[in-house]
User: Fold this.
Amino acid sequence: MAQRRIQLSVLLALAVAVVGGCSVMPANEKSPRAADYPVSGPEHRERVMNPASASLLEQSRQQQRSGNLAHAGSTLERAVRIDPSEPAVWLALAQLRYAESNWVQTEQLARKAYSLAADGAAERRAAQRLIADALLRQGRQEEAQRLREELGEPLR
Assistant:
């Protein structure tokens, strides 16, 4: 049952990605980068990442560094299938979609990472920051402002 729910969540996220992939960033805005949303180390981490997921996460980072975002996305999607309860993988996928200017999917994936991350975890704060910025890019200023205020950070 839980497996089926996760599969439906992933399918929903992918469907929204197709629909949301048509958004356009205004010409006067600089292109976002996943590096703008770092996760600082494993502090407050309560579980150990599946070794296969960890390996795929690292492989994805190498693919991103070499500019191969499509392969990096496929690699992260494989990692999600292996360990759908790992917030770091969902967050990495959200960061990748942000770098691709896919604001709707960024928001959804970051919300998934947020829901899976432990309270006080760096991943949870990074996911909340990413949600706020994705909301801002979608023109949802008030929601973005509220999330940033919860973090004690100004809106960019």
